[in-house]
Amino acid sequence: MNLINNSQQFDVDINKETTELKYAVNEIGDIKHISEVERGLSCNCICPYCKSALVAKKGDIKSHHFAHHNGEDCLKGGETMLHLMSKQILMDEKRVMTHGELLQVNAEDALGFHHELTDYIATQVLQGSDAVLEPNLGSYRPDVSLNVKGTWLDIEIFVTHQVDDDKATQQSTRKRDMLEIDLSQLPRDLSMDELKEQVLYLAPRNYIYGSNREAKLEALTTKVNQTISHINQIEEKRKQAESNAITVATDDSVTILGFKFGSGFSNKRHGQQDFSIGHLFCLSKVQDYSTRNFTLSASGGYEVISRDASDCLIETLKTYQFPIQAKLEYSPKPDMGNKFVVSGLTIVTS
Ligand SMILES: [Zn+2]
Questions:
Q1: Residue 78 and residue 64: Cα distance in Å, rounded?
Q2: Distance CA 285, CA 180 (A)
Q3: 151-158 vs 205-209, strand pairing mode
Q4: Is a pLDDT exceeding 90 seen at residue 238?
């Protein structure tokens, strides 16, 4: 059988509403194909959904099929049969293919950069040593459970009802692997062989809970979080250093003799731009140290130096009788790189 052509054919040949059953169950629950039973009511088969008697229609004109003896238009027989047959296939074969998946985890650091890590789980055919039909897990029974190397894999067949959140949560809580196989888009009248390919290999499937998948996701998350926390710590330290530089008073108590604020325009500047100044005049000890390119011969006493001041100080300064003794605080000058301006002062009482 050409599997790819076969699955493409389903897209155009889907017939979910068929009432014609090719398979039915007999009085002891065995699945029977129309070709395996006697004609008419003596087929001894019932509809798996409504349990009413079926007749085997095996005439010369129409294709052979089962029909409800009471003539009722039962639409559920086909999907119930599909579900029953799928469970039988899993019980007989005790194997299932799981799908490969790309796993991605990403998160954003304090600087707004995204960090993404990926891993994958490979496609695998899991062979069980044992299969149990509808094991009792308390509040529900999965369709089939396979024992794969000592670990139970629960399998749910999705024909009309998807696994709900409650069941998914319970599987996750008890860390029990569960695979859902989606047959909802398949025609309801597949042959046993066609259905076998779909159930075991071809139909879409996904882990409701997969311990291997969860472990890989957790490892990725831990790794991403470590990277982000490392970057965030560095950024936090940088911010701390920056804020220390701004708020710590760099002069330890100076004598302020006066202040001057004003504004004007300059002919020297392009376009006669307005400018404003703000100065504090402070007493400073005359330089008493040499530098790399200046050798001090002698010095003593004080000189007047000016400090750029923010005009937010004007109202405060106007209330003082000079000279005053104060500690200065500096802020970076807007648009001036590493230059600083006096933005606060605290009077030192003597
Ligand atoms: Zn029925």
A1: 15
A2: 83
A3: unpaired
A4: no
Q: Which fold has domain 248-266+275-285+301-347?
A: OB fold (Dihydrolipoamide Acetyltransferase, E2P) (2.40.50)
Digit-coded pLDDT (tens) for 282-309: 888 888 888 878 888 998 888 888 999 9
> For residue 188, how far is its CA from the centre of ligand 1 (angstroms)?
14
Q: How far is the CA of 135 from the centre of ligand 1 (A)?
A: 26
Domain ranges of the chain: 20-74, 79-245, 248-266+275-285+301-347
CA of 7 to the centre of ligand 1 (A): 27
Would you say the pTM of this structure is higher than 0.90? no
Query: For residue 55, how far is its CA from the centre of ligand 1 (angstroms)?
Result: 12
Q: How far apart are CA 87 and CA 125, in angstroms?
A: 17
Amino acid making up residue 274:
D
The sign of the dihedral angle between the CA atoms of 183, 187, 192, 193 is negative
- Residue at 178: amino acid letter: M
Of 199, 123, 139, residue with least CA distance to 171: 139
Q: How many residues does the chain have?
A: 350
| Cα–Cα dist 139/95, whole Å | 25
Give the residues across from 258 on adjacent strands.
281
